[in-house]
Amino acid sequence: MFGKRRVERREESAGLGCSGIRGPRGFTIVEMIVVIVIMGIIGALLSRLIAKPIQGYLDSSRRAALVAAADTALNRVTREIRLALPNSVRVNGGNAIELLRVRAGGRYRAEGPSGDILDFTLATDSFDVLGAFDWGEVGIGGPPACSGAGGTGGCLVIYNTGQAGADAYQGDNIAAITASSPPSIGFSRASRFPFTSSSQRFYVIDGPVSFVCDPVAGVVRRYAGYAISAAQAVPPSGGGVALLVDKVTGCAFSYAAGTATRGGLATLQITLTDSGESVALMQQIHVNNVP
Question: What burial letters (b/e) apply to 5-14, b meaning 16+ CB within 10 Å?
Fold first, then answer.
């Protein structure tokens, strides 16, 4: 009896169960600390290895977004410049570019035994259009007054050279369209047009358009629907304004007028910055200045 009890007590003190098998053991605090330290070291190494590729991906994505935004803005300005009335592109201060946008163009009747001709020897108020012409672009509805005369359609311009006596901004060769019914266009002008076009060309414009860069506000804005003015205002007053692009930190607009042997050249440069990352894009546009 006494011997059997001593054996059972000895088995219990040795951690044995009734079946004689040792019970489960857990982790010690030291083992857990060692595992945590090792995992921390591995995590730190992995984070250093992964951080640079991830940062590089984020940087490249940011640069791509900036390039896309700048390219879209420059392409929009380019499209507008290619629609400009010949010799109407002008720049003020390197941060604002303005143009008179053409909606349609055609040829006027200058002579003939019949039909309504455009007589440059006296003041007239209508002429017949020759050949194909997009009549839907004439009655665009309520543009700014052309040379002080009200009209219900666009503005008619003939032989714009941008020089004294033939400058649409000065009102020399512009008139408000008052009627358009094929094949005739009616207009309001107190005096005759000063110069004939060698190719009998006329243009219909819907007013001026300006792109103004404001690096302080970090934007480039587009202005339209304001009145034609002899002096280029920055920014123009009246009309509507729309945001073209933001995150702008610099702009450089310039224009070299055309000559008898070459067309004009507009140069546009824009710089965008985001989170310390900057991109600068430049675009040049050849401008046809044959009036």
Answer: eeeeeeeeee
